[in-house]
TrEMBL record, chain A:
Topology class, membrane: Multi-pass membrane protein
Regions annotated as coiled coil: none
Organism: Ruegeria sediminis
InterPro entries tied to this protein: ABC_transp_permease (IPR001851)
Lineage: Bacteria, Pseudomonadati, Pseudomonadota, Alphaproteobacteria, Rhodobacterales
Protein name (record): ABC transporter permease
Transmembrane segments: 12-33, 53-75, 87-104, 110-128, 140-160, 199-220, 240-264, 302-323, 329-348
Keywords (A to Z) from UniProt: Cell membrane, Membrane, Transmembrane, Transmembrane helix
Subcellular location, record wording: Cell membrane
UniProtKB/TrEMBL annotation, chain B:
Protein name according to UniProt: ABC transporter ATP-binding protein
InterPro entries xref list: AAA+_ATPase, ABC_carbohydrate_import_ATPase, ABC_transporter-like_ATP-bd, ABC_transporter-like_CS, P-loop_NTPase
PROSITE patterns tied to this protein: ABC_TRANSPORTER_1, ABC_TRANSPORTER_2
Organism in which the protein naturally occurs: Ruegeria sediminis
GO molecular function: ATP binding
Length: 382, 509
């Protein structure tokens, strides 16, 4: 620390990374003969210019908050959970079973039950790689990514052979009953006089996602378990010294991570599709990795990064719809953002650190004895 | 007057608010051994890192042989004829000596010609400086003393005229250290200039021609070694009079607290590191385990602390302790009033990125005193931290600083405060003053002795013979996983212990 003020670390670096990614994206758009300014305008108006756009942006963001938190919790224990995608798929299966096979009197109870089922299924899917890592030393990156494929195949089997309604050619479950229909933001905001687009899929899960941010924050920084997870993540030998069982922390952190990824299903399966389809997760599990990286594994950062990626998703869809910019290019733009904010973090960080260092020195040289910066009070924590 | 081999003028360097080097000027005459001594955190390593191109000084200039020289990176340092032997060797374990020496100085795409040339040059170097090593042995097959020679040869192979050694004797037996000093004297005869960084006064007195003392980033004095004495140097380092030996009354041991019977420990690689040890530590005594690093002391301490599995019997106050080595053992040990100051505070005793107050709970984070409902009672913890910081004079007295932002001595004070303030029945202490400044050493030693005087049992593991002598009421020497013998400090001397540490059995010694 002391190299840079905290705000530069959490605000400036992501911002510069984003600008770089945007600049490169603009060049790519120019190269295929389109107008980047017009493209940006279209993205902004499409994603943020109407409550309809916002409804989609927040819907995507909700997915990314859950998967981002999932990756973030595992990160704190220095576990790289790439299996968010598969855990979210299994979460969807849990939601579908809870909604289809039990008659619920009201959506609130159904939401609780579906949430519990999705978390259980997601956690169970994460438990196997966690066990293999903790007890057998199989690398969690490899096993979780493999488990994504197994999850996809398993879901395929379930939808085609078990849960497909008779006579249907579509590998999907039937629609969930009307009683488990989750209120959309339109339904929630109408009573307080705010009119929100009826057609947009954002729903009450967004509120659950915000809640989840608070719970994860409290878990990581306020509980003994969170303390142990962070301690283990910083130093495994230290954890052993302190009587923190690496096996236990690996498994518990992965269970929580898997449960959070699974919980995403209340948004996309229960809130939006209202039935379980193939590929319901649409890659949100992977976006979660970028979201967690960009959000510095802090729930608030994850929240902001998820909104940003929600915007990119929705804006990108608008681009594909209204311009001749092909769908693939949208993926390129998103990939650039991930590349710059996640993988190339140090490329921006190092020169910036140097600038701050020389700035700090100048300041000290001007005033004879500048007071010590009081940055220490906000170092690593909350 | 001859041109100095190295001249630093007005070097300043700060890291954020911490000024590590303040306007340092030093001049080292060619063909001399120049010692730099100072407390940990005094800025010795920073100064040498600037000289070796790891850091860039904020101000000041470096002159090599009278020439103003910019050293932006280590390549430039090597080009300027500076060689560095680090405290932790930078060798590739599964490469041979020869390959390590060539590493980074290869010429062309093929290795064979470089190796052949290196072999020839190495032979010449060896004969010139009497630095013999077998070039075809792998690094992991040779001892630490030899590895250090390889580091020195590496520097010489790169045509170093100025050799910097950072705490070179930390891992050596007394005999190996003596050998090192003979090599250094030989190098000096051949006209090399040597800078020796150490915190051991004895080494400064024995090996150097001139000594510079650093304190809190400043160079407080440069004196001819012949014209000074250890007491004066210690005072210059700390800024006040220091007790070099611990004041303590004779021990009055009571009943056995810790009883170890036939303890065996096998490490992850399947190598038996502790080979059937019997040892008893009684209430009110300090038992010191002496030995060269890597002879099973660390593993012994880790088993006792619950960090590793072992076989055999360990009893505390008559009750057997579990030896499963599972992560949860550490908690059980603490519940049984065993406190543990681990050997490596940075990797074990502290979480470096945690605040000081978070570290004060480390290992005791499940203590009900720090609990409020399902949450941790951070306010109580911070209040407790403030008390400990005050009592143990941790500086800076800021519980919000991350552990990594404290100096080594203050980090260790945090660990010692946490463990001793638990008022344990048995205190396990590993290398309590490694990388700790003299002022803090004195303080930590006093705390350990005070705990003994309260009738607690203390097991001390240290590679510093001086520390073993000044603290222990009984000394056990470990070599190759065995206890070679037990001695009383007033009935033995460094020579006898040195032989035991080298594996010469008790009867012969």
């Amino acid at each position: 620390m002391d190299k840079m003020p905290k705000w530069a670390d959490v605000v400036l670096i992501p911002l510069i990374s984003l600008i770089l990614a945007a600049f490169l994206s603009a060049l790519v758009i120019l190269a295929i003969g389109e107008d980047p300014i017009a493209a940006v305008k279209l993205m902004v108006s499409g994603a943020l210019g109407s409550t309809y756009g916002w409804g989609y942006t927040l819907y995507y963001a909700t997915n990314f908050i859950f998967t981002g938190l999932a990756v973030a919790v595992a990160f704190h224990a220095r576990l790289f959970n790439i299996g968010g995608e598969g855990q979210a798929m299994l979460g969807g299966l849990g939601v579908a079973m809870a909604c289809l096979y039990i008659p619920w009197p009201h959506w609130t109870i159904a939401l609780l039950a579906a949430a519990a089922a999705s978390m259980l299924f997601g956690a169970a899917w994460a438990a196997i790689p966690a066990y293999l890592q903790a007890k057998r030393g199989s690398h969690i990156v490899i096993t979780t990514i493999m488990f994504n494929f197994i999850a996809a195949a398993f879901l395929n089997y379930m939808l085609v052979n078990v849960m497909r309604p008779e006579g249907s050619m579509d590998p999907a479950t039937e629609r969930f009953p009307e009683a488990v229909h989750l209120p959309t933001l339109h339904d929630l905001l109408a009573p307080i006089g705010i009119s929100f687009s009826k057609a947009a899929p954002a729903n009450v899960s967004f509120v659950v996602a915000i809640l989840a941010c608070f719970v994860v924050w409290a878990l990581i920084w306020r509980t003994r378990l969170g303390y142990e997870i962070r301690a283990y993540g910083h130093s495994e030998t230290g954890a052993l010294y302190a009587g923190i069982s690496p096996v236990r922390i690996t498994i518990v952190a992965m269970l929580i991570s898997g449960a959070l990824a699974g919980l995403m299903a209340i948004n996309n399966v229960m809130g939006e599709a209202e039935r379980l389809v193939l590929n319901a997760t649409e890659g949100a599990g992977f976006i979660g990795i970028a979201v967690a990286l960009m959000g510095r594994s802090h729930p608030f950062g994850v929240f902001l990064a998820a909104i940003l990626f929600g915007f990119l998703y929705q804006g990108g869809a608008e681009l594909a719809l209204w311009t001749s910019i092909p769908r693939e290019l949208i993926v390129v733009i998103q990939a650039l953002v991930i590349l710059f904010t996640g993988a190339l973090d140090n490329m921006v960080r190092m020169p910036l650190e140097r600038i701050f260092l020389s700035l700090g020195r100048k300041r000290r040289n001007v005033g004879e004895t500048a007071p010590l910066p009081d940055a220490s009070h906000s170092t690593t924590q909350d | 007057m001859t041109v100095p081999a190295i001249e630093l003028k007005g070097i300043s360097k700060s890291f954020g608010p911490v000024q590590a080097n303040k306007n340092i000027s030093i001049s080292v005459a060619p063909g001399t051994i120049h010692g730099i001594i100072g407390e940990n955190g005094a800025g010795k390593s920073t100064l040498m890192s600037i000289l070796y191109g790891f850091y860039k000084a904020d101000a000041g200039e470096i002159r090599i042989n009278g020439q103003k020289t910019e050293i932006p990176d280590s390549q430039a340092a090597i080009a300027a004829g500076i060689g560095m032997v680090f405290q932790h060797f930078k060798l590739v374990e599964n490469f041979t000596v020869l390959e390590n020496i060539v590493l980074g100085a290869e010429e062309g795409g093929l290795l064979a010609p470089s190796l052949a040339r290196a072999r020839k040059e190495l032979k010449e170097l060896e004969e010139e400086y009497e630095l013999f090593v077998d070039p075809d042995k792998r690094i992991d097959e040779i001892g630490v003393g030899m590895q250090q020679r390889v580091e020195i040869l590496k520097a010489l192979y790169r045509k170093a005229e100025i050799l910097i050694l950072d705490e070179p004797t930390g891992v050596l037996t007394p005999a190996e250290a003596d050998q090192l000093f003979r090599i250094l004297h030989r190098l000096r005869e051949e006209g090399k200039t040597i800078i020796l960084i150490t915190h051991k006064l004895r080494e400064i007195m024995e090996a150097t021609d001139t000594v510079s003392v650093m304190r809190r980033g400043e160079m407080t004095a440069t004196v001819k070694t012949a014209e000074t004495n250890p007491e004066q140097l210690a005072e210059l380092m700390v800024g006040r009079k220091v007790l070099l030996r611990v004041d303590k009354v004779p021990a009055s041991p009571g009943k056995p607290v810790l009883e170890i019977e036939n303890l065996r420990v096998t490490d992850e690689a399947g190598v038996e590191r502790v080979k059937g040890i019997d040892l008893t530590v009684r209430a009110g005594e300090i038992v010191g385990i002496a030995g060269v690093a890597g002879n099973g002391q660390s593993e012994l301490l880790e088993v006792l602390g619950g960090m590793r599995p072992g076989t055999g019997t360990i009893r505390l106050n008559g009750d057997p302790l579990p030896l499963s080595g599972r992560g949860s053992d550490g908690q059980a040990r603490r519940a049984q009033h065993i406190a543990h100051v681990p050997e490596d505070r940075q990797r074990e005793g502290l979480i470096m990125d945690f605040h000081a107050w978070e570290n004060v709970a480390f290992g005791y984070h499940r203590d009900p005193a720090y609990r409020r409902g399902i949450f941790m009672d951070n306010a109580a913890l911070r209040a407790d931290t403030e008390r400990k910081i005050e009592k143990f004079d941790v500086r800076p007295a800021d519980g919000w600083l991350a552990a990594k932002n404290f100096s080594g001595g203050n980090q260790q004070k945090i660990v010692v405060a946490r463990e001793i303030e638990r008022n344990p029945d048995l205190l396990l202490v590993g290398q309590p003053t490694r990388g700790v400044d003299i002022g803090a050493i004195e303080f930590i030693h006093k705390q350990i002795v005070a705990l003994r005087d309260q009738g607690k049992a203390i097991l001390l593991v240290s590679v510093e013979l001086e520390e073993i002598f000044s603290l222990s009421d009984r000394i056990a020497v470990m070599f190759d996983g065995h206890i070679m013998g037990e001695r009383l400090p007033h009935e033995t001397d460094e020579k006898e212990l040195g032989l035991l540490m080298a594996g010469v059995s008790g009867e012969a010694a």
